[in-house]
Amino acid sequence: GSFPSLTTLMALPGMRDTQTVVKWKFLEHKGPVFAPPYEPLPSNVKFYYDGKVMRLSPEAEEVATFFAKMLDHEYTTKDIFRKNFFKDWRKEMTAEEKAKITDLKKCNFSEMNEFFKAQSEARKAMTKEEKQKIKEDNERILQEYGFCIMDNHRERIANFRIEPPGLFRGRGDHPKMGMLKRRIRPEDIIINCSKDSKHPEPPPGTRWKEVRHDNKVTWLVSWTENIQGSIKYIMLNPSSRIKGEKDWQKYETARRLKKCVDRIRNQYREDWKSKEMRIRQRAVALYFIDKLALRAGNEKEEGETADTVGCCSLRVEHIKLYPENDGQEYVVEFDFLGKDSIRYYNKVPVEKRVFKNLQLFMENKEPDDDLFDRLNTSILNKHLQELMDGLTAKVFRTYNASITLQQQLKELTNAEENIPAKILSYNRANRAVAILCNHQRAPPKTFEKSMQNLQTKIDAKREQLSDAKRELKSAKADAKVRKDEKSKKSKKAVQRIEEQLMKLEVQATDREENKQIALGTSKLNYLDPRISVAWCKKWGIPVEKIYNKTQREKFAWAIDMADEDFEF
DNA sequence: GCGTGTACTTAGAATACAATTC
DNA sequence: GAATTGTATTCTAAGTACACGC
C-alpha cells in the first residue's frame, strides 16, 4: 500500500513538534456530540432525608443521581469522596434544600439506585427490534459526527462524544475524588478547523466559545475541564494518518537509540564517578530509567493529585538499601506508587558505585526529601537531547520494551511447536515486557471461577482422550492383519483430541500467568508492531491471532511495511 | 533557571458486545 | 433462548514533554 510516506508535513526526528510543524492543510468536521440533557426521575422514585420523603429541585436531583448510581461502588464509602461530593452537591441546591440537607449520612438514595438498576435490566431485556433500532441510531451518529476530512482523507475521530457530567473518579488517593464534573455546553467549546472548511454549527440557540484555525495542532475540539482546570481534546483515532505517522516516528527514534545505547551506557557509568553531584544524580537516575524502565517522573502540584512518583521525583522513603540481601550484594528495594497509583515493588542488585552514590544522595535527608535533589525531568531531557537527537526519558521505555520482545521471541519460539504453542510463546514474550513496564491489573473478579471452569474442561477432555485410546486399541486388535478403516478413524480421533487437550492446557497456563498482568498497554504503546508482524510472517501465524480488528487498523502501517526479516 | 500553559501519549477500569454453555 | 463467560471497545484520568514569558 501507499501508507504512509514521509510527507512534507511530517516532522523530522528531533524537530520540535509543538507549535512548529504544520499538521494539516485542510480540516473539516461536524463538531462534538453533547451529552443528552438530564431527564428528571419519575415521581414515584423517592429520595428520603432523615427518613422522610423529600422532593428535590431538578438541579439537585441530577447531582444526587450521580451519587445514587455509584452506591455499590467502593468510592461512595470513602471519606474524601463523600466530603467532596457533598460540598459540590450543596452548591447545586436551592436555599431551602441547603438549609434542610446538612448531613450526607441522612440521605437515602436507595430508591434512585434501584431505579437505575431496573433501568439497566430493562435495557438488557429489550427485544431484538428495539436493540436494532438503538444500534442503527448509534451508527447514524457515528457516520455524521465520528469522521472528519483531513487533507483529502475521511478519518475516524476517537472521542467525538463530550464527556457527560458526573462525579470525578480519580485513581488512588485522589484529593479531588467525588467532586462534581460539570456539564459541558457549546459555550465552553473551542472548535478547530480550516478556514476554507464548512464550520460546524453549534446547537440551535447556542454559540461556540471560539472557532479557530490552527493547523499546528491536531485537535478538532477542546474545552477546559473544571476539576483540575486542564484542557480536554477531541482528536483522531489511532488508525488515522496523523497518529500512525507519529507512532511510526516514535519507534524509529527508539531504533536510533538502539544504535547508540552502548555509548550512552558507557557514558552514564563514567558519570557515576563525576565529582559533580548533579552529574552523578543524573547518571544514577538514567541508569534506573534504562535498567528498570521507570518513567521520567515530572514534578506535580502537591495536594492537587494523588501522591505518585516516577524516577526523577523519587523520594528517600521510596527506596531501601541492603549492602547484602539473600546472598546478593548491593540490593536496592523500590517501593512506591507510580502512574495511576499502581505500586512498583522491586528488589534489584546494582553496581557497587550506584549503591555508594545512593547512600551519598540519602545522607542527612528526611524520608520525604527528594532522592535526586539536583535533578528534574527537564535537566535530564536536556542532557539526553545532547546525547542523541530526539532522545527523551520515555524513549528508553519504548526501546527496552521493543528490544525485550524481540529477544524473548527469539528465545521462546520453538520451530517444532504448533500454532497455539507458538502463540503461548508470543504471549510470554509480551508478558516479559508487561512485567518490565509494571503493567498490572486487578485480578478479574471471576478469575478463580474461570480457572476452575477451564480445569473442568481439561479433565473432561482427558477422560475423552483415554476413551478414544481404548477404542483405538480394540480397533487395532479387531483389525488382525491389515489395517482397516475403523482403526484409521480411531487414530485420527485420538490425534484430534490430543490436540484439543493441548490447546486447553496452553490456554490454562496462559491465563494463570496473566492473572495480574495487563498485556494490552505494552502491545498498544510500547512494542514496535513490525516485530510482531515479522514474527507472524516468519512462523506462518495469521496476524489476526496476535492483533484484533482495531489493533490491525492502528498498525496498518506496520502490517503493510514489515517483512519477515524486519529487525528492530 | 522557573512557573505556567498546551498538546499529546499512555493507562487501567468500566461497559458493550459476542461467543459459549446450559 | 436465557444466562454466563470472555473479548473488544469505550472512557477518561494521568502521565510526558516542551514552549513561552520572565
From TrEMBL:
Leading EC class: isomerase
- Per the similarity annotation, which family is this? Belongs to the type IB topoisomerase family.
**Reactions that this protein is recorded to catalyse:** ATP-independent breakage of single-stranded DNA, followed by passage and rejoining
Role summary: Releases the supercoiling and torsional tension of DNA introduced during the DNA replication and transcription by transiently cleaving and rejoining one strand of the DNA duplex. Introduces a single-strand break via transesterification at the specific target site 5'-[CT]CCTTp site in duplex DNA. The scissile phosphodiester is attacked by the catalytic tyrosine of the enzyme, resulting in the formation of a DNA-(3'-phosphotyrosyl)-enzyme intermediate and the expulsion of a 5'-OH DNA strand. The free DNA strand then undergoes passage around the unbroken strand thus removing DNA supercoils.
Q: Where is this region: Disordered?
A: 464-492
- Residues at the catalytic site: Y526 (o-(3'-phospho-dna)-tyrosine intermediate)
User: What species does this protein belong to?
Assistant: Lates calcarifer
A GO-annotated cellular component: nucleolus
> What keywords does the record list, in alphabetical order?
Biological rhythms, Coiled coil, DNA-binding, Isomerase, Nucleus, Topoisomerase
Record-given protein name: DNA topoisomerase I
Record field: transmembrane: none
PROSITE patterns in the record: TOPO_IB_1, TOPO_IB_2
SMART domains per UniProt = TOPEUc
GO annotation (BP), single = chromosome segregation
